[in-house]
Design goal:
Layout: H1 3-15, H2 22-61, H3 68-112, H4 119-128, H5 135-148, H6 165-168, H7 172-183, H8 192-227
Helix pairs in contact: 1-2, 1-5, 2-3, 2-5, 3-4, 3-7, 3-8, 4-5
């Protein structure tokens, strides 16, 4: 049974004559989103394998002084794949956030007897729909959540995928850093200020991921308290 059938079942459940209990809807959404997360993990592993092949190629070409242009081209492709992986990792974190928030909202509903709209879920689903790999199914999930009253109606702009200017215009310092790391300085050094700038950006990204994970842990703790 493919993912399309799962979406079809959920669609029929929500828009058909028979109304499905919110408990079952939440289970369907979390199950579907978790499946999307596993798909992202597989894609990340594939990208990492390809990345290792490119690294080996760069190391081989580094022995040839006339191959600098080819090495730079390969390094640019690594910058792109790393940015792609970052997006996929971020999407996985957002999926975990949505699943946890759905369960939390349902737990609260059992207490107050009403499923409140969630700004967190609205925001995270909007971001997930901007990722091509999971856009189709996440858009369907979001429409179902709107129909069920879990999130507010989204404007059309939310469904549009935005271009990432950073991916289109690759920073030279990132390319230089990758070449320096892989060739261990065989093709010359990289300015210290460039390395510091890249390291600073990496630290900022790590902090953002840590904060997102912390938020999810807090939601899980609240969920456990409600279920206690």
């Amino acid at each position: 049974v493919g993912p399309e059938w799962g979406c079809h079942r959920m669609f029929n459940s929500l828009f058909g004559k028979k109304k499905v209990p919110i408990k079952d809807q939440v289970k369907e959404w979390t199950r579907g989103l978790s499946k999307e997360a596993r798909g992202l993990e597989r894609k990340i592993r594939e990208i990492r394998r390809d990345e290792n092949k490119v690294k080996a190629q760069i190391k081989k070409l580094a022995k040839e002084k006339s191959a600098k242009t080819a090495i730079r081209t390969l390094a640019k492709s690594l910058v792109q794949t790393r940015k792609t992986c970052d997006k996929l990792y971020e999407a996985k974190t957002r999926i975990n956030s949505v699943c946890t928030q759905l369960k939390l909202n349902y737990a609260q509903m059992k207490v107050v007897h009403t499923m409140n709209k969630s700004g967190t879920i609205l925001k995270e689903m909007g971001k997930l729909m901007n990722l091509t790999d999971i856009k189709k199914n996440c858009t369907q999930f979001a429409k179902q959540m709107m129909k069920a009253g879990i999130i507010e109606e989204m404007v059309n702009d939310t469904f549009e995928e935005l271009d990432d200017p950073d991916t289109e215009k690759l920073a030279d310092k990132e390319v230089d850093k990758i070449i320096y790391e892989i060739t261990q300085g065989q093709l010359g050094g990289v300015q210290e200020i460039k390395n510091k700038g890249v390291k600073k950006e990496e630290k900022i990204d790590e902090k953002q991921v840590e904060q997102k994970d912390k938020d999810i842990d807090e939601m899980k703790a609240r969920l456990e308290q409600l279920n206690a």
